[in-house]
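Write out the 3D structure for:
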Amino acid sequence: MEKEESNGCSSLGYKLLFSCPFGLSPPQLSVVFDESYDRIPHSDVNLEKSISEIWDQRVQKNASLFNGKKFRYGGYSQKSGDGSSHESYVCLHLGLTDYRTFVGTNLSSFWEKFLVASEDDSTQCQHTSSPIGNGAIVETSDKKIVLLQRSNNVGEFPGHFVFPGETHKNSKDRKDFELVNKRCSEEMFDSIIREVVEEIGVPTTSLSDPLFIGISRRVLNVRPAIFFFIKCSLESKEIQHLYSKAQDGYESTQLCTVSMTELEQMTSKMPGCHQGGFALYKLMVEASKNI
C-alpha cells in the first residue's frame, strides 16, 4: 500500500511507503543487506563535492561530530502467504551509508538537486544518503500514546514532538552482515525495544513484542523511517515517573502521554516522517475495528 499525504506545508508532509495495519512479527520481516542498495553518486561533480564541503564546515563548528555508519533504506519487496491480508511477508532492502553523507545530501540546502524525476521511490532517492530511522508508537495500559519533545541539542527538528526511536546504527562491516542476514530483522525489533527503554525509562518486562506497521518518508529532505507498535503494561503516571530516570535524557526535554484526539492536534508540531507514523497507527486502529 502506498499513500501520500501533506497538510500543505512541505516541511510537515509525509508519504507512506508501506502500510501493514495488522502488524508483522520478526519471522514475517526479513532484511537483505547488500551493496546494490548503497547510494549511487550523482553525475554532477560539483554537487558531489558539496558533500565533503558541507561536512568540513560542520566539523569546524562542532569538532565532536562523529561520522558513524548507518543503514540506508533502499526499498522493500512484499509477498503474501495464503492471499490473506493477515499473512504478509516483507523484505527490507538495506545498504550502507554514513552521517557525513546524510548531512551532505538529505540535510543539505541542495537536497532536491540530488533527487531523480521518477515515480519509483528508490530511484527518486538513489543519490541521497537516506539513513533509515525507527520509531515506536507506545500505547500505555490506560490507552495513551507516548510522545517525547526533542531538546534544542539535536540537529533535526529541535523542540518538535516525536515517537521514541532514532536512526538505525550499523556497527559491523558488510561481511559480518552477509553472514547474519537472517538475524538482521530480529536486531531491528530488539533495537527498538532498547531505544524505548533508554529514552523513556520503562523496564523491558513492561513492553510487548513489537509489531512492524509500516514505513513513512517525510517530504522535506526525503527522510525515511520504519515504525513499530508496542504495548506497555504501565499507566501514564508510572511512565512519567520513570522518564525522570531514563538513560538517554540528552535528546528530549519532556515526555507526554496523550489520547488519540490530542495526538491528532499535535501533528503540526511533529516532523513529517513521525506524522506518517501516526497515520500508520491510525490505520492499525481502524483495521482492528474491522476484525
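Confidence is low (pLDDT under 50) at residues 1-12.
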